[in-house]
Design goal:
mainly alpha; 98 residues
């Protein structure tokens, strides 16, 4: 019969398994998260209407990646201007002018 080896072991840190225990500003109530996100978006971009922003924010609230973020941070991303796509060049027009 072999005897167990008594060796010291390194203690590990406690894993955070719950959002309650995590050191993040998590908003539990989805309606509150939506309200704060829409309010901040309207504050950052006054020309936007709540009727236009709310469906987008509701959709974002169903996605874990966004939902774990502070609603104000999400609103800042949402309020950024969308870059315009460069117009496609007419290849036939370029060939004719060459």
């Amino acid at each position: 019969m072999t005897e167990p080896i008594e060796a010291p072991f390194e203690k590990t840190f406690r894993l955070v398994c719950r959002l309650d225990d995590a050191d993040i500003d998590y908003v539990r109530d989805t309606a509150e998260w939506i309200r704060r996100c829409v309010a901040r978006t309207l504050q950052l971009n006054p020309s936007t209407h709540a009727d236009d922003v709310t469906p987008i924010v509701v959709d974002m609230s169903t996605r874990g990646r966004w939902r774990l973020m502070r609603p104000e941070t999400v609103a800042e991303q949402l309020a950024l201007p969308v870059p315009q796509a460069a117009p496609e060049t007419d290849r036939a027009g370029l060939a004719e002018s060459s």
